[in-house]
Amino acid sequence: MDKFTFDEWEAGSFPYRRTDWEIRMEEFPKKELETLWAPWRVEYFEKEPRDLNFLSEAAQASDDAAHLVITRRKNAFLMMNRYPYAVGHLMAVPYRKLGELSALGDNEVVELWNLVVHAQALLRAATKAQGFNIGLNIGQCAGAGVTDHLHIHIVPRWSGDTNFMPIIAGTRTLSEGLRALYDKLMDAQSKMAERNRDR
User: Fold this and answer.
1) Which of 69, 159, 179, 184 is the most exposed place for a label (fewest CB within 10 A)?
2) Alpha-carbon distance 114 to 99, whole Å?
3) Do the Cβ atoms of 68 and 82 come closer than 8 Å?
4) What is the pLDDT of residues 187-197, one digit of tens each?
């Protein structure tokens, strides 16, 4: 293709002329930051530095709302993650502070997985979750933020919920605040309990 034909094609088919595109590429990374307005994130910034004992504190707390605890069972409880991978990231946690699955008793294992099932139902009702990532990170090298108190992550997913922000900008965007979502989950749990009573 000769230069004249290519320029004609470029002018009519490509959204940017080559000179504009080259200028745009020279601006990456940008010299000035753009603003991503996310006022609901203030609740993360107002918090004290991360407390690695927060699971044990939530296990012993009497104020469930302050610790984002959604429900309690005899051997384990379900809570929201204060540092979520995605909106609605929940955790099923044993009361006992253990770092290895092999240290769990049979009743703890059963209760933890029952809480995972409960979490899925809650997230489907409250957030219309379409799928889930569920799992554990055991050990620091496996990504465990709290190595001595295991917990099962329940992360809701939606079609098309991944984007370029974490890769390009090193930023994860969350669309809903913790407190508003906590209230939604508690409301969904209440409605589920009412339906079960009516059966």
Assistant:
1) 159
2) 20
3) yes
4) 999 998 888 87
User: What is the token pair recorded at 176?
Assistant: 């809903």
Which residue bears the tokens 């290519």? 6
89 catalytic? Reply is: no
Alpha-carbon distance 80 to 70, whole Å?
7
**Per annotation, catalytic residue among 67, 89, 149, 151:** 151
The pTM of the full predicted model, rounded to 2 decimals, is: 0.70
DSSP for the chain reads: --HHHHHHHHHHH-SS-HHHHHHHHHTPSPSSPPP---GGGHHHHTSPSP-TTHHHHHHH-S-TGGGTEEEE-SSEEEEE-SS-SSTT-EEEEESS--S-GGGS-HHHHHHHHHHHHHHHHHHHHHH---EEEEE---SGGGT-SSTTS--EEEEEE-TT---SIIIIIS----SS-HHHHHHHHHHHHHHHHHHHHH-
What mean pLDDT value characterizes the chain? 80
For residue range 153-162, list pLDDT tens digits in order: 999 998 876 6
Whole-number Å distance between alpha carbons of 146 and 99: 9
- CA distance between the termini of the chain: 73
Please answer whether residues 59 and 77 qualify as being in contact, where contact means their C-beta atoms are separated by less than 8 angstroms: yes
Q: Which residue has the tokens 């384990």?
A: 76
